[in-house]
Amino acid sequence: MSKSNLPEPASLPADQSLSKAEASHHVIVSSSQSFVSPLPPPEILSAYEKTLTGITERILISFEKEGDHRRATERFQQELVKDYQNSHFLLMRRGQLCGMLVVILGLAVAAFLGWAGRQVVAGIVAALDLVGLASVFLYSQYKSKEDSETKSKA
Predict the structure, then answer these.
(1) What is the pLDDT of residue 36?
(2) Radius of gyration over every alpha carbon of the chain, rounded to an integer in angstroms
(3) At 135, which helix (H) or strand (E)?
(4) pLDDT, tens digit, 9 for 90 and up, residues 55-66
(5) Which of 86, 133, 146 is nearest to 105 (CA)?
(6) Which residues of 6-30 are buried (b: 16+ CB within 10 A; e: fewer)?
(7) Under DSSP, is residue 55 helix (H, G, I), strand (E, B) or coil?
(8) What is the pTM of this model?
(9) In this predicted structure, what is the pLDDT of residue 32?
(10) What tens digit of pLDDT does each residue of 26-58 get?
(11) Which of 22, 45, 54, 95 has its CA 20 to 30 A from that of 150?
(12) How far is CA 56 from CA 8, 48, 75, in A?
């Protein structure tokens, strides 16, 4: 039996039953509704309220609590980032100061050796001190460039 020969459901008498072939050709229609807001539209809220008294207030309270929690979590994350940045800055500053002290100490040793008549050794110590300083500077530049490239790829 083709689809066109099937009677419309409304035209069937109440006592007439459909055969298996006719029953397999029924169409099921469903509908859905969606909304973008975190809260349902007022029509749905009022339908909920008719079904269960007080549910609208509970939904709104839950929504407000979730917003408070989200804002508190975001504040906490911002504080963690700020603390990390501050500690990272202090650690970098401490490293720079220690590096400066090592360079000054190396140059002081080289100056003392030069004053004591060991000019060749003083030159070697001064050269090693300055090469070490330059290599640390270049390595930090390379590392920061590598880190920025890694972050841009992610």
Answers:
(1) 81
(2) 39
(3) helix 119-153
(4) 999 989 999 999
(5) 133
(6) eeeeeeeeeeeeeeeeeeeeeeeee
(7) helix
(8) 0.47
(9) 82
(10) 678 888 877 787 788 888 888 888 988 999 999
(11) 95
(12) 41, 7, 29
Q: What is the Cα–Cα distance from 69 to 55, expressed in whole angstroms?
A: 21
Going from the C-alpha of 81 to that of each of 92, 105, 152, the distances in angstroms are: 16, 36, 19
pLDDT of residue 20: 56
80 band by pLDDT with thresholds 50, 70 and 90: very high
Tokens representing 55 are 């549910």
H or E, element range at 70: helix 55-115
Taking CA atoms, 38 is separated from 52, 53, 69, in Å, by 20, 21, 15
Contact present, 39 and 67 (Cβ < 8 Å): no
